[in-house]
Design brief:
The complex is a heterodimer.
Chain A: H1 4-31, H2 44-47, H3 55-58, H4 60-83, H5 89-108, H6 116-131, H7 138-164, H8 167-171, H9 173-180, H10 188-196, H11 198-213, H12 222-243, H13 246-255, H14 257-266
Helix pairs in contact in A: 1-4, 1-6, 1-13, 1-14, 4-5, 5-6, 6-7, 6-13, 7-11, 7-14, 9-10, 9-11, 12-13, 12-14
Chain B: H1 18-28, E1 42-48, E2 59-60, H2 76-96, H3 102-127, E3 137-144, E4 147-154, E5 158-159
Antiparallel strand pairs in B: 1-2, 1-3, 3-4, 3-5
Classes of the chains: A mainly alpha, B alpha+beta.
Chain lengths: 267, 160
C-alpha cells in the first residue's frame, strides 16, 4: 500500500540533495578543465578515439556546454523538489538529463570520475526520473524509490562483506595503510594517531564492518531506520573529512531518504 | 617550457559504442566493493635526473592538497587526485591481469604517463627547483604501496 505523504516527502528531499550533488559535480568539473585540456591527463586527442557518436558533446566546448546544462537541470530538479506536487514532467526531464550527463561525464574520463559516487548519483537520478514520471502508475513511482533503497542497502552490505573477509580490516592494518596513502591526503595528525594507537584503528575498522553489514536493519522499523540514517550521515561526513571523499557524502545523502520509504513500505 | 607529449606508444584502436555500453553497465551494476584490498594500493611515483645525470629519489606523484572543513562538500583538487589514483589502479590491474586487452593497457599507460608528466612541475617546486627547464630527463613508475620493491612498471628515462 502506497503511503503518499511519506513518498512525497522522501522524493522531495532526495531531489533537493541530488540536485545539490549534481551541481557540485558540474562546478568541480568546470574548475578541473585543465586536466581535460590538451596539456592535461584526459586529453581530448587521446580520449576521442572511443567517443564515437558522442564526439561533439565530449569535445572541450561541447563538454563545457553539457556542464552548464547540468547546472540548469540541477536548478530545475531542486525547484521541483522544493515545491513538491504531482504531474510535473519538467522535473522528470531534469532528473533524466542529470542522469544522462552523469553517464557522459564518466565517459569523458574513460571509466568513472570518482568511482562509486558516480554510480550512486546515477542510481538516485534514475530512480527520481521514475518517481517523477508524469502519468505513470504508483507502482512505477514507487519502483524508482525502492530501486534506490535496494542499491543503497546493497552498497553497504557489499562494502561490509569485502571488509569482513579481509583480515587486515579486523587488525586495523587496513585503516592504517589507507590513512598513510598520500592520494587521500589524510591530515598528518590523524595519520600519526592511526600509527600510534593500533587499538583505535582496530576499533574503527570493526565498527565500520558492523555498521555496513547492519544496513538491512534499516528496513525493519522506524527506530532502526532513523538510527541507521543518522549513523550513515556521520560515517560519510567522517570519510569526507578524513579521506576527502566529498562526492560520496552528497551522493549517499541523496540516497539515504529512500531507506525511510522502504521501511514504511515493508514494516 | 615545452609541453610534454607522449612519444613512445602506438595510437589506441577505435571503439565505437563499447565505451558507452561499458560505462552504462558500470553505473547500473556497480561493484560497491570499497577499500577491499588493504596494503596493495598502487602508487604513482616520479623522479628527475640531476644535472650530473644521476637520478634523485623517487617521490609520490599524487598527493592530495590540505583540506579545510568546507571541503567535505566540494573539493575539486581532491577529486582530481582521486580520479587520477583511480586511473593508476586501473592501469595496475590491467598490467597484472594476463587476460587484459593489450590496446586498453597501452591506452591506460599513456594516460598514467600524462598524469606523471602533469605532476612534475609541482614535484620540482616542492624540491626547491625553480626552473623546470633545467631538468632534461625524468622517469615514472607504479609500485604497490605495501612494498616499494614491488614495481608494476618503470618507464625508461624520458625527455622533457
Amino acid at each position: 500500500m502506497v503511503d503518499p505523504v511519506a513518498f512525497s516527502m522522501v522524493v522531495r528531499v532526495m531531489s533537493v540533495v541530488a540536485a545539490a550533488a549534481a551541481a557540485v559535480n558540474a562546478a568541480e568539473l568546470l574548475t578541473m578543465s585543465r586536466v581535460l585540456s590538451e596539456r592535461g591527463i584526459w586529453r581530448p586527442t587521446t580520449m576521442a578515439a572511443s567517443w564515437g557518436a558522442f564526439r561533439v558533446l565530449l569535445s572541450a566546448t561541447g563538454f563545457r556546454a553539457v556542464l552548464a546544462l547540468q547546472l540548469l537541470a540541477a536548478l530545475g530538479l531542486a525547484l521541483g523538489g522544493w515545491r513538491g506536487g504531482t504531474d510535473m514532467p519538467w522535473v522528470a526531464a531534469c532528473a533524466a538529463t542529470l542522469a544522462s550527463i552523469t553517464l557522459l561525464s564518466a565517459m569523458r574520463f574513460g571509466h568513472t570520475v570518482n568511482g562509486g559516487s558516480d554510480a550512486m548519483l546515477f542510481t538516485v537520478l534514475a530512480g527520481l526520473t521514475l518517481a517523477w514520471w508524469p502519468s505513470a502508475s504508483s507502482v512505477v513511482h514507487e519502483a524508482g524509490v525502492l530501486y534506490v533503497a535496494a542499491q543503497l542497502t546493497l552498497s553497504y552490505v557489499r562494502a561490509g562483506w569485502v571488509k569482513l573477509r579481509e583480515r587486515d580490516w579486523w587488525t586495523g592494518r587496513a585503516l592504517r595503510a589507507f590513512t598513510a596513502f598520500p592520494a587521500y591526503g589524510v591530515p598528518i595528525g590523524m595519520v600519526q594517531a592511526a600509527s600510534q594507537h593500533p587499538f583505535l584503528t582496530r576499533l574503527i575498522g570493526v565498527s565500520a564492518i558492523l555498521f555496513e553489514l547492519s544496513a538491512p536493519l534499516a528496513w525493519w522499523q522506524p527506530i532502526t531506520c532513523a538510527l541507521f540514517i543518522t549513523v550513515a550521515i556521520l560515517f560519510h561526513i567522517g570519510t569526507a573529512v578524513i579521506f576527502g571523499l566529498s562526492r560520496f557524502l552528497l551522493a549517499w545523502s541523496a540516497a539515504l531518504p529512500s531507506l525511510w520509504y522502504a521501511m514504511v513500505r515493508v514494516a | 617550457m615545452v609541453p610534454y607529449r607522449f612519444r613512445t606508444l602506438s595510437p589506441r584502436p577505435r571503439y565505437r559504442l563499447r565505451l558507452f555500453i561499458a560505462t552504462l553497465l558500470r553505473l547500473c551494476f556497480p561493484s560497491w566493493a570499497f577499500f577491499d584490498r588493504a596494503g596493495t594500493l598502487p602508487e604513482l611515483q616520479i623522479r628527475r635526473y640531476a644535472v650530473d645525470k644521476r637520478p634523485v629519489t623517487w617521490q609520490s606523484a599524487l598527493i592530495a592538497p590540505a583540506r579545510r572543513w568546507w571541503h567535505m562538500f566540494s573539493f575539486p583538487e581532491g577529486t582530481q587526485v582521486l580520479a587520477t589514483q583511480s586511473l593508476v589502479e586501473r592501469y595496475c590491474q590491467a598490467v597484472l591481469d594476463s587476460d587484459a586487452d593489450h590496446a586498453e593497457t597501452v591506452h591506460l599507460q599513456r594516460l598514467v604517463e600524462y598524469a606523471a608528466a602533469c605532476a612534475l612541475p609541482a614535484a620540482w617546486k616542492a624540491e626547491g627547483q625553480p626552473e623546470a627547464s633545467v631538468v632534461l630527463r625524468w622517469q615514472w613508475r607504479v609500485v604497490l604501496d605495501n612494498n616499494n620493491d614491488d614495481v608494476v612498471h618503470e618507464s625508461a628515462g624520458l625527455p622533457w
